[in-house]
Amino acid sequence: MGFSGVFVYNTGDAVTFPTGKYNLQGQTLYQYASRNSNRMPENHRLDISVTYDKKKKKRIQESWNFSLYNVYGRENAYALVLKTIQTILQEHKLLEPLFLNGFQV
After folding, report:
1. Is residue 69 within 8 Å of residue 36, measured between CB atoms?
2. What is the rounded CA–CA span in Å between residue 90 and residue 51?
3. Which of 19, 23, 38, 57 sits 20 to 30 Å CA-CA off 76?
4. Structural domain boundaries of the chain?
C-alpha cells in the first residue's frame, strides 16, 4: 500500500486586460495598457492518493488507486469575465449603493 500527495501552487499568469472599449462605425475596439501588466489570481490545491497493490498472480500485477483532486475544495480562477461599468450599473439597477474606485454611484 502506498500513499502520496502533492501541493500545487501558481502565482498567477501575467495577462493584459483592456482598459477601454469604444464603438467606431459599428465595430467594437478595445484599448489596452502595457503588455502583461496584470496578473491572474494565485491558485493552489492539494491532491492525495492511496494505491493498494494486490499480490501477483500468474504474471498479473493488479493495483487499485483512489485519488482526491483539490482536497480542500478551493475555487481557483482559471478565467475572468470582464464587465463594463455600464453593465454593472444595469445589473445593480441602482437599488443599492455601488462603489466604484471610491466614488458612490
Report:
1. no
2. 53
3. 19
4. 2-78
